[in-house]
Amino acid sequence: GLVFRRRPSLSSQYRFRKRDKMMFYGRKIMRKVSVLQENGEPPPSLLEADLTEFDVKNSHLPSEVLYMLKNVRVLGHFEKPLFLELCKHMVFVPLPEGQYVFRPGELDNSIYVVQDGKLEVCIQENDGSELVLKEVLPGDSVHSLISILDFISGYIKPFKTVFAKAAIPSTVLRLPANAFQDVFEKYPETLVRVVQIIMVRLQRVTFLALHNYLGLTTELFNTVSRKIHPLHQFLLPNTIYFIILKYFLLKLHISNFFPQDPSLLDDKVNCLHVPAGTLVSKQGDQDVNLRFVITGMLHVYQRNIDSEKETCLFIIHPGELVGQLAVLTGEPLTFTIKANKECYFLSISKFDFYEIMRQQPNVVLTVAHTFVRRMSSFVRQIDFALDWMEVEAGRAIYRQNDKSDCTYIVLSGRLRSVIKKDDGKKRLAAEYGRGDLIGVVETLTYQSRATTVHAIRDSELAKLPGGALNFIKRRYPQVVTRLIHLLGQKILGNLQQVGVSGHQHGVYFSSSKWDSGNPASNLSTVTIMPVSDDVPLLTFTLELEHALHDIGKNSVSINKVLLSVSSSVHEYRLSSWLGQQEDIHRIVLYQADTTLTPWTQRCFRQADCILIVGMGDQEPSVGELEKMLENTAVRAQKQLVLLHKEDGPDPSRTVEWLNMRSWCSGHLHLRCPHRVFSRKSPEKLMEMYERVFQKPPDIHSDFCRLARVLTGNAIALVLGGGGARGCSQVGLIRSLVETGIPVDMVGGTSIGSLMGALFAEERNYIQTRIRAKQWAIEMTSVVKTVLDLTYPITSMFSGAAFNNGIRKVFKDKQIEDLWIPYFVITTDISASAMRVHTDGSLWRYVRASMTLSGYMPPLCDPKDGHLLMDGGYINNLPADVAKSMGAKVVIAIDVGSRDETDLTNYGDSLSGWWLLWKRWNPLATKVKVLNMAEIQSRLAYVSCVRQLEMVMKSDYCEYIRPPIDEYGTLDFGRFDEICEVGYQYGQNVFDIWANNGVLEKMMSDVQEIRKMNTGDVSLSVCCQILSCLLYSFQQGYICSLRN
To answer: InterPro entries from the entry (predicted)?
Structure first.
């Protein structure tokens, strides 16, 4: 087969520039010079946008050619002869200020591109007032896709309410629509392609934007259409009605008049009868037919965006078509079609329709026109304002402090928002995936852009100017409600992470990881690449695909695309088909080759996230493909995944893997079943995984954990501080495991950091309990405690004995080597900030997180020398930190001190000798006075009380507090008793969760909860060689997805 090759366009030369190579070598040199930065700042390409997309000053092309090239992209790729043919028709039009480019009553038959100056596109309201829809700056255009389609279909209409004028003296390039007719005559094979692209843009930009994000439904269509008797249609030659009706008349033996060969329709048309109440097609269906109503009628419905309720959009009467948009675009059906009354209709499948069009291409114009005339005047007006943008990876759509004049909607791809602080440092603010709105807050509030947003990968956006948004709000006030709902969700999400972003507590991630947000938010595509040839990439992909099935029930892996054509005119077809896979499936996996082939480059360009897969027991060297990946400055987030054998050793030397890969923002360890490392042939492996796919995956497996992380469904366990009361957390872990709740991330403070680290290392309750109990017994040793006493300048104890106890538990284990991702909280008294440690020496940071003031000296951070103390002073239950690191649900176990108001009032001073006498004298009245450890524990609770209240009220947190108030902070001698209390309480809590549906909600996919796109479309996933037919309208070709 022929590997798909992308023909370089005029703009592709800017993709990988010398600047990117300079960045690569500069970063390489810096890593050798400064070891301190090995895990510090991200590679510059991750947070920096490229230059503007069309750099007119530095281009060798004239500005008019460059601008025209940019604006005819909306109609797809044109080869050089076609583009030059279009350029012959360009007309330069100088405009003084206030001069009209076009006005109501004039024919709508041109594309206008601004070369210099500024135009205003306006709309005339019913009361005569004028409203500016958008401003058009140099390089941008004024056109309507609907108008272009009308023109080439032979249905030219005048402007009714839209007009454009020069806001300042300007020069405009005018491209008459008849230029396209000349091109179609010389190159007839381009006609159908252009019509198809126009229809795709209308569906993905106009309808997706206005329906999915602004909530408009019936406003988009003419609900009343003129009824057409079928027999009248035979008067219109060369139309689909003509062909279908003649076939229908032939079947009924009514007419023998056929100017064309009726054999064209043999075995392609079916006459169907459906009774009243039949569901003909469902919204989201992939297998779509073109239907022509003979008698009766069909009702077309669309699901409301915020509910399951459906609204009737329009009715299909006899003589009319339905299904045109889905058939022409190849996209899933956006409507539901029902027969509320008995109905007869003719039906042609999508594939048969393509065969007809190959022999009679003009039929596509009539079919497209029958759909376009359904559109309301409002859609025609707004089509002038809505723009479709294709943004290459690295390009900025706007920069910080730019004027806010529009809102962007992500149709496909991924973008990153970066904020530049006053000190010049850049920080990742957010990432946006399919369906997200960008810049809507600034546009509505007329504020300057707060961040710079650039494309991580090649992306498609819909651009909605501020003027058009105001027009829509005035015309349809219900849109305001929709926007308030969207903004409310965004604000609520931000409030729930207050403090994590660094505003409240001065949060500082000790690993200096640039991505402190959720890296898996709204991922659509994941590329899987190997470190070396030894990595079992096929079985890894299949295991991950199997695990993803348990989450979204809807994933697909695409291993390689082989095309029977190499012409770059079909690039858009492959891109469109891959985009459809993202629409249909919850997540799409791309398996790269082991070398930098064209397919591997395609995988990188399509990636929201890249998994770099290596063998954990091999040397941590950087593979050749990785070096090439860094050299190309790919901006997608990269995660290192290390594979380990089931019966192999625990992870080690992870820090070496990461130090060689500054481009990796995180890592995961996967313990793999033996079948992953099978050396069977690919055919035998596929047979084996056919059987594997018939069984549900083990939700506790590491592949399922990876699947939950990638889909934003991770479950975090967060353990709070509270001294010996933390022993109850071991019992709760036991009940958690027995209930079957998986844990994908562990975090803790103080005693919780110790218990959490043990569980993250062992992953089973028995070993966690044994090691925790051994440590608790050592804590009760009076001899070691006395021997550790020191002169109390900084603290009562030197900390050496405590250090030895912690080090005996964890030895020299690094946080990076734990099986489950782990973080620990400390208080940095040098920088007055909360520290979140996700790498480094495990025993040191656990010890630092348990350092009570006055008892032990602060621990000096080996990285920067900052003094670290008990994390309980700043965040005793860090559920918010776990949420910010990607958890969907956080199970938070609180064992901190609670209010006690029955303490003894001992006056203004207190003698320790008096307390000692009261405690030892059996005849003395007992007094209740807090000891030093209890005072420290209570201080931690008081300082975090507001943060704790926010965590308890948040919708992502499941708060648990076992009944352990009677136990003291230093009651480690009662380990078994406290542990049993936690176990019994956990059993009761988790039983209640199971009965109330909490567990079911916890395990459900986050996108199923807030699903707002197409219906429950499912595509069977390939456990065998997957082949999919992609149809060209001129020539069929096969796209095979092979392993």
So the answer is: Acyl_Trfase/lysoPLipase, cNMP-bd_dom, cNMP-bd_dom_sf, NTE, NTE1_P-loop_dom, PNPLA_dom, RmlC-like_jellyroll
Domain that holds residue 76: 63-186
Q: How far apart are the first and last CA of the chain?
A: 13
Instruction: Say if residue 860 is in the same domain as residue 943.
Output: yes
Task: For 46-85, write each residue's pLDDT tens digit.
Answer: 556 555 444 444 445 566 566 655 655 555 555 566 777 7
Q: Are residues 309 and 344 in the same domain?
A: yes
What is the rounded distance in angstroms from the CA atom of residue 845 to the CA atom of residue 866?
12
Query: What is the number of alpha carbons within 13 Å of residue 304 lying toward its C-beta?
Result: 9
The DSSP call for residue 935 is H
Asked, for residue 24, whether it belongs to a domain, the answer is no
The 10s digit of each residue's pLDDT in 726-760 is 999 999 999 999 999 999 999 999 999 999 999 99
Q: Assess if residue 84 is contained within a domain.
A: yes
Residues 499, 880 contacting (CB under 8 angstroms): yes
DSSP state of 515: -
Q: For 156, what's the count of Cα atoms within 13 Å in the CB-facing half-sphere?
A: 11
Do 361 and 451 lie in a common domain?
no
* Domain contains 138: yes
Number of residues assigned to the chain: 1043
End-of-domain residue from the set 981, 1000, 1019? 1000
Residues recognised as catalytic: 750, 870
Torsion of CA 71, 7, 351, 203, to 10 degrees: -30
Q: Which conformational region is residue 282 in: left (phi greater than 0), alpha (psi within -120 to 50 degrees), or beta?
A: beta
Q: What is the pLDDT of residue 514?
A: 31
- Residue 521 Cα distances to 408, 548, 884, angstroms: 18, 15, 11
Would you call 1034 exposed, middle or buried from its count of C-beta atoms within 10 A (0-12, 13-18, 19+)? middle
Helix (H, G, I), strand (E, B) or coil at 478: helix
Backbone angles phi, psi at 905, to 5 degrees: -85, 105
Q: What is the pLDDT of residue 269?
A: 80
Beta strand spans in 373-414 (E)? 387-391, 396-398, 406-412
Reduced to 3 states (helix: H, G, I; strand: E, B; else coil), residue 604 is helix
Residue 22 to residue 116: CA distance in whole angstroms: 34
CA distance 406 to 464: 5
Mean pLDDT, range 320-335, rounded to an integer: 84
Residues 885 and 969 in one domain: yes
582, part of any domain: yes
Q: Which stretches of 752-886 are assigned E, i.e. beta strand? A: 822-828, 833-837, 859-860, 867-870
Domain count of the chain?
5
